[in-house]
Amino acid sequence: MFALLLAGCLVAATDPQALLARTDAAANRAKDVVLELAISVEIPGVERLARTVRVWQRGQDQRLVKFVAPARLRGTGLLMPEAGQTFLYLPAYEKVRRIVGRDGAGSFMGTGFSIGDLARTRFQSDYTAALVSESPASDVLKLTPKASDAHDHAALIVTIRREDSLVSRIEAVDAAGKAIRTLVASDFRAVGGYTVAHHVDVLEHAARRKTTAQLESVQFDTGLSPDFFTERELRRAP
Fold first, then answer.
1. What CA–CA distance (Å, rounded) separates 160 from 57?
2. Which residues touch 4 (CB under 8 Å, ≥6 apart)?
């Protein structure tokens, strides 16, 4: 999810792989970012769930995600110390385990976001792009997973804004092309020289579950050290 919150340069759509590379580069233009999200989850007939998540990211390869609230989830976290590695920490078990393949698919901590969503900093390393359509306002790519067994979808249909390279919509579809989950980013604003989507909705169609993420705070280029992204920091309470 967080790769679509950051953007930078203008995209000219021609070659789909080049377009995807530019989108990834724009999403990671800042040296680092620290942000906090207020997340709510709504399911028909069920009491609304509330979550608060804090994220630290450095460059394209390092990210730390921690649940701040509610109390029973506080300290639950994900660590990406380098490209291709994801670790999960559950405070109740006091153990760190590596996430591999389909372990990263499906809902995470009762939200519409998967571990894969929270861990993803770019698309190009995991997907092959094909151009679906283009217009003066946006371009649409179909992204096919390079390792299909690591995902719960057959493809992603991704809409990219021409004006700033931000991804504004991601639709995960099955092999028949039926929508599994739809993510829509909105309320784009300039913050510290970067464009940020302040609101994200995720709709899981079969479960009729809607997850909303609201950006509460964001800071860019804070000087995060690469040594911050360690298992020791993952275990530390936020």
1. 22
2. 27, 166, 167, 168, 170, 183, 185, 197, 200
What's the sign of the alpha-carbon dihedral 166, 169, 174, 175? negative
Q: How many CA atoms lie within 13 A of 148 on its CB side?
A: 6
Q: Is the pTM of this model over 0.70?
A: yes
Give the domain CATH number at 197. Answer: 2.50.20.10
Note down the domain range covering 46: 2-235
- Radius of gyration from C-alpha coordinates of the chain: 17
Q: Which two tokens stand for residue 72?
A: 């029973």
Dist CA 198 CA 221 (whole Å)? 18
Within the chain, residue ranges assigned H as helices are 16-27, 115-119, 231-235
Own/partner contacts of 40-43, CB < 8 Å, gap of 24 or more, are: 40/211, 40/212, 40/214, 41/110, 41/111, 41/112, 41/209, 41/210, 41/211, 41/212, 42/209, 42/210, 42/211, 42/212, 43/207, 43/208, 43/209, 43/210
Domain count, the chain: 1
- Note the pLDDT of residue 12: 43
CA angle 83, 85, 87 (to 5 degrees): 140
2-28: pLDDT as tens digits: 555 544 434 444 699 999 999 998 889
